[in-house]
Write a structure and sequence with these properties.
Elongation Factor Tu (Ef-tu), domain 3, alpha+beta, 9 strands, 133 residues
Length: 133
């Protein structure tokens, strides 16, 4: 399956989520290397939103929720993907994360990688990306 969208600015909450050791260690094991302490936000094209909803309904590995410093941290579902940019041949191994408790609308995805994707791949808001799942 391929999802298509554009890079967009997030709320900044992804970095606090990624700094939680239970999440970051589990994602590290899944990705095979340490994760960058932040997420890349992607706004899906309308055609991809319906595909994403169907994928979300029955899939993804689940990281259970937990308590940290008296705060309830919700469960997260994770999918492995390959991110590519436009006609570029560069591909990044990434994880799509979907917090079960999220304020994000259905068309916004959060992407995790082992490095800052904006810097490494020269991404800016509005750049089109593809996610092969």
């Amino acid at each position: 399956m391929e999802l298509v969208g554009v890079v967009c600015t997030g709320t900044g909450e992804g970095s606090s989520f990624m700094r939680q050791p239970r999440y970051s260690q589990t994602l590290w094991l899944r990705l095979g290397r340490p994760t960058y302490p932040g997420t890349l936000n992607v706004k899906l094209h309308p055609d991809s939103v319906e595909q994403w909803k169907k994928l979300r309904e029955g899939g993804g590995d689940r990281i259970p929720g937990f308590k940290a410093d008296g705060k309830e941290m919700g469960a997260v579902r994770v999918w492995s993907a390959k991110l590519s940019v436009g006609a570029s041949q560069e591909i990044a191994e990434v994880l799509i994360i979907w917090p079960e408790k999220t304020a994000n609308p259905d068309d916004i995805l959060e992407i995790v990688a082992g490095h800052p994707l904006r810097t490494r791949m020269g991404l800016k808001d509005g750049d089109e990306i593809k996610l092969g799942i």
